TrEMBL record:
Residue stretches in coiled coil: none
Spans traversing the lipid bilayer: none
Matching Gene3D superfamilies: Winged helix-like DNA-binding domain superfamily/Winged helix DNA-binding domain
Name recorded for this polypeptide: HTH arsR-type domain-containing protein
Length: 100
């Protein structure tokens, strides 16, 4: 495996929840930073959305900048590219041998 499991696991965790995928999709579709709108788009409580954003930030997929009393979030182009490369590497290493 080219990409170590220690690198893939946090990325897989970050992508393993539908709400986090909705957050990523909203940020990608918008192409700009979102502040309070993320709560509206995802349809969850602010505290829940904050927890999901924390996981996405820790995985390097999202960045946040403070704008007054709010934090605005954007996709991290470098983080997204890294995740894409890491998972491509994983799946390229799997050859899908038939066993049954």
């Amino acid at each position: 495996m080219t990409t170590p499991p220690e690198t893939l696991a946090p990325l897989a965790k970050a992508l393993a929840h539908p709400a986090r995928l909705r957050v990523l999709a909203a940020l990608g579709a918008r192409g700009e930073c979102l502040c309070g709108e993320i709560v509206e788009v995802v349809g969850l409580a602010q505290s829940t959305v904050s927890q999901h954003l924390k996981v996405l930030r820790e995985a390097g997929l999202v960045t946040g900048t403070v704008d007054g009393p709010r934090t605005c979030y954007c996709l991290s182009p470098a983080g997204i590219a890294h995740a894409k490369d890491a998972f491509t590497s994983l799946f390229d290493d799997l050859h899908g041998h038939a066993c049954c």
